[in-house]
């Protein structure tokens, strides 16, 4: 019970103090992006990445699997270049995420090496195959849309492209995909690819659900998956009885 309360207090503290941090901790975009570009060229120190990831556990979980209701994404196994790019965009204000912004300040990630380290640690985590799913009745239609509109950038299996900072979307939670899709469509994701924003404007609700249900059904390769019953040995004392799934998904 004490561990549950401590996690909740951490999250409450972040929510209480996020706005003041945003108000006073202004980071110049050019300087910020140059730092993250440097991070792309560095070799990650996994031990330091493990220490930094302690700040991520309360939301993303010790395994990095997030929550199946879409409140938090599965970040385990994500391409390191993608994680670095997303951290850069959040820190520079190009992607709106007040809670994450608090964890990307220089007080938390002090320089390019820290950024490379935590991204490298996340990339090394094995993924869960039990991600949240959509309506399986839509899979065939969703596959047709995906192969027509999404595969060129995200890959036929949703594996992404690290060099182009295109995220791996295989194994991602359906409800998280829905939320991010709508934020991209509606202009809330300022770092979104302009071609994608334009392309998805004409999707019907049925097409939206179909293509994202198919995306969520894409499974990572066997070598990227965690073995049955695997738990992250780096966090043996973490109380896994409490999960973000118990909270309502953010809209």
Could you please describe the fold and organization of this structure?
The structure is a single chain. This protein is an all-alpha fold and 251 residues long. It folds into 2 domains: 128 residues, Cytochrome c-like domain (Cytochrome Bc1 Complex, Chain D, domain 2, Orthogonal Bundle), CATH 1.10.760.10; 90 residues, Cytochrome Bc1 Complex, Chain D, domain 2 (Orthogonal Bundle). Helices cover 49% and strands 0% of the residues. The protein is built from 12 helices and no strands.
Provide the residue-averaged pLDDT: 85
Strand content: under 5%
Q: C-alpha Rg, in Å?
A: 18 Å
User: Superfamily at the CATH H level of the largest domain?
Assistant: Cytochrome c-like domain
Which regions have little confidence, pLDDT < 50, spanning 5+ residues? 1-28, 244-251
CATH architecture of the largest domain, please? Orthogonal Bundle
**Fold-level CATH name of the largest domain:** Cytochrome Bc1 Complex, Chain D, domain 2
Overall geometric form: globular
CATH class of the largest domain: Mainly Alpha
Helix count? 12
Distance between the termini: 29 Å
Class from secondary-structure proportions: mainly alpha
Helix proportion: 40-55%
Find the count of extended strands (DSSP E, 2+ residues). 0
Sketch the major β-sheet.
Answer: none
Topology of helices and strands:
Layout: H1 2-24, H2 29-39, H3 46-53, H4 57-60, H5 80-92, H6 98-102, H7 112-124, H8 139-149, H9 151-154, H10 174-185, H11 194-199, H12 205-217
Helix pairs in contact: 2-5, 2-7, 3-7, 5-7, 8-12, 10-12
């Amino acid at each position: 019970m004490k561990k549950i309360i401590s996690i909740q207090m951490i999250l409450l503290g972040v929510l209480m103090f996020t706005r003041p941090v945003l108000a006073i901790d202004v980071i110049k975009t050019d300087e910020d992006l140059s730092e993250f570009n440097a991070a792309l060229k560095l070799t990650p120190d996994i031990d330091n990445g493990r220490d930094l990831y302690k700040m991520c556990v309360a939301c993303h979980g010790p395994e990095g699997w997030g929550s199946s209701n879409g409140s938090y994404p599965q970040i385990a196994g994500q391409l390191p270049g993608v994680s670095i790019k997303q951290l850069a965009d959040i820190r520079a204000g190009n992607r709106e995420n007040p809670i994450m912004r608090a964890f990307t300040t220089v007080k938390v990630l002090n320089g390019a090496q820290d950024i490379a380290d935590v991204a490298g640690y996340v990339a090394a985590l094995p993924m869960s195959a039990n991600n949240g799913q959509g309506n399986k009745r839509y899979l065939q239609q969703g596959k047709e849309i995906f192969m027509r509109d999404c595969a060129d950038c995200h890959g036929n299996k949703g594996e992404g492209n690290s060099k182009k900072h295109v995220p791996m979307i295989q194994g991602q939670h359906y409800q998280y995909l829905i939320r991010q899709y709508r934020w991209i469509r509606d202009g809330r994701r300022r770092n979104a690819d302009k071609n994608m924003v334009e392309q998805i404007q004409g999707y019907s609700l049925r097409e939206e659900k179909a293509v994202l249900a198919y995306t969520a059904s894409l499974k990572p390769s066997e070598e990227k998956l965690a073995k049955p019953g695997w738990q992250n040995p780096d966090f043996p004392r973490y109380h896994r009885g409490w999960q973000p799934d118990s909270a309502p998904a953010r809209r």
